[in-house]
## 1
Amino acid sequence: MKKSAVHPGDVKTEVRHHKPKHLAEKLERFVGMGMGAVAAVLLVGLLFAFMQTGNGTPPWMQ
């Protein structure tokens, strides 16, 4: 029987370095989070307005 030339301790794992991201790729994440934050603020403002007026139509539109 022939012995293996490679021992388990000799195997080195390949280290993969991440490719550096461009500025646009970094900002894509913040654009999505910003849009979510704006939507949340608008929703809170809409709910606050409904609770203050008691109905969906503001007084200046009636």
Note: Helices lie at 23-53.
## 2
Amino acid sequence: MQWFQGRKTYIISALMAATSLMHLINGDATLQEFIMSDQVTTLMEALGLGTLRAGIARRVG
């Protein structure tokens, strides 16, 4: 279980992004419907979570 140390947040972020993009890829929604839906919010949250974790991982100093 040492492999998961420091990577759990990245895994969750990737799963969030994949889940939101699946609606667009599978054809459940057009691009316009996708942009106007809550899936874009989930995608942005996933990107923000990954960026936040990367920022914490790089300690200044």
Note: Helices lie at 8-25, 31-36, 38-57.
